Structure of histidine kinase:
Amino acid sequence: MRGDKGGFFTVVASNEGSMLLQSELRLLQVLMDNIPDSIYFKDSNNKFIKVNKAKADHSGTTAEEMIGKTDFDFMSREQATKACLDDEQVIQTGIPITNKVERVTHMDGTEVYNSVTKIPWYDAHGVIIGTIGLSRDITELIRSKERLQEKSDQLKEINSDLERRVQREVEKRRIHEELMTQQTKLAAMGEMITMIAHQWRTPLNIMALLMQDLQDACDSDHVDKGRVIDAAGEAISQINFMANTINDFKDFCKPSKSKGLFDVKVAVEAVCAITSALLRHNSVEIRVNCTRSDRVMVYGYQNEFKQVILNIITNAVDSINDKRTATNVKGLIEIDIDRDDEKVTLVIKDNGKGIEPEIIDRIFDHYFTTKKDNVGSGIGLYMSKIIIENSMGGNIYTTSKDGKTAFVIELKL
């Protein structure tokens, strides 16, 4: 009885355990079937033991139909061979394959990208008896990356095209500025010729008087040798003065080949020297005031800097002459030079007609001029700004109040 009773309880326990196992298996199947990723179990012969609904759907069949079959029944030979080789590798090495990206063609012809993970399947004794696989559709992720790469490539092409266009525009601007520089130089040459004419007028008059004196001496009965020597000496002195004038203008017109240190005060005084005749002719006094007794050195293009000072001085003379049409003003240009620990500052002031407030912000614009009858080219101050700010890294601006205009130039030490 006891044996029968014990057998009864054993059968009951066995049935209850089987029912519990079947319940857990059903729960596992429900869980697997509600996961969108493909999941499968294979034995050591690469035969499917268990698959979820997603795996069956992707294979174009049912889960029941897949049990006991291999990948060769649901894939192309090429794809099935790759899948089986991966499974055998995991079984032989015990090393998982994780997140391997594969391009797969489903039975309906749809091409997708899957992220495949395969791990070894162990029994209760730790022996590998097959593989467990999980395959996730990452097609949209791959497509997004491809679209992103395509957009990135397009952006690179746009950037490259933009760089090429910028380079072309920079080159055009460089050529344009070179042309404007040449125009400025031509205009400056015209002013130089006028100044040379002013500088030479007095020596030529003196030489004419000397020649007349020598002619009178030759016409007389007794030639005064001392008188002739004195006249010749004076003539040679005037010729040397004229030659030096040409050298001064030649050096001034020569462009600076490279940046270098130069004394701002010396450069300003050189410009004052070559404009002295122009200033005298127009009854304009010029004063240079420097707060420093030592040299005021800056780094830049010396002759181009002189061109800026020349342009401002000649503009000041024109402004003073314009004011003279209304009042008999005595012309005055003052140049103040100061230096601190960071910069050199030049303030060039005149007592001309001044600049109207409504146009003062445009004074450095290209082709903008305040001169009447198109006398001015409108490029002098524009090029001055380019020279000071672009070429020498400084700053230039202007103020005008009560008929007094001031141009301020700041150069870093």
Q: What stands out?
A: Confidence is low (pLDDT under 50) at residues 1-13. The two ends are 117 Å apart (CA to CA). Residues 139-219 form the longest helix (81 residues).
